[in-house]
From TrEMBL:
UniProt cross-references to PROSITE patterns, sorted A to Z: RADICAL_ACTIVATING
Name of this chain's protein: Anaerobic ribonucleoside-triphosphate reductase-activating protein
Catalytic reaction list: glycyl-[protein] + reduced [flavodoxin] + S-adenosyl-L-methionine = glycin-2-yl radical-[protein] + semiquinone [flavodoxin] + 5'-deoxyadenosine + L-methionine + H(+)
SUPFAM superfamilies from the UniProt entry: Radical SAM enzymes
Gene name tied to this protein: nrdG
Length: 154
């Protein structure tokens, strides 16, 4: 898996102060996508062991208290990302007690493959659905268009 951006400290993508990872790779091609540069799974930087460890360390760093991790993109549930994302969410659950995980995906919860569902089973909140330009509304919180839904799962 590759990633485009990692924000060590972020107050925009999800509730509270968070760490946020924007991964590479997305097949949805939503019209009006604000992040088209992430569509190519080979773009960005390699998400290696060091980067994974950095996220764990940031979440456990008490100097800046982060509420959790946000996973966006691109699409964290893009098939080629699933192995790396599953490993990451497993580690966050095991090694970062009290931290939540939010995940944004263009897939709907009803359409997930068993492999995608395995990841979703380990995250707290999923914001699902493609970005629909006709339904875009800048006043929405944590989503871009009104068809998208926030699912509080755990
Ligand atoms: S799912 Fe997100 S990143 Fe992918 S095309 Fe749609 S808006 Fe862009």
């Amino acid at each position: 898996m590759n990633y485009h951006q990692y924000y060590q400290t972020d107050v925009i993508n999800g509730p509270g102060t968070r760490a946020t990872l924007f991964v590479s790779g997305c097949e949805h091609q939503c019209r009006g996508c604000y992040n088209q540069s992430t569509w190519n799974a080979c773009s960005g930087h390699e998400f290696d062991e060091q980067m994974q460890q950095r996220i764990i360390d940031d979440l456990n760093d008490d100097r800046i208290k982060r509420r959790g991790l946000s996973l966006s993109g691109g699409d964290p549930l893009f098939p080629a990302n699933l192995m790396a994302i599953l490993a990451l969410v497993k580690r966050v659950n095991a090694e970062c007690p009290g931290k939540d995980i939010w995940l944004w995906t263009g897939y709907t919860l009803a359409s997930l493959s068993p492999e995608q569902q395995q990841v979703v089973d380990l995250v707290n909140v999923v914001v699902d659905g493609k970005f629909e330009q006709a339904l875009a509304d800048p006043s929405l919180v944590f989503k871009g268009s009104s068809n998208q839904q926030i699912h509080y799962l755990r």
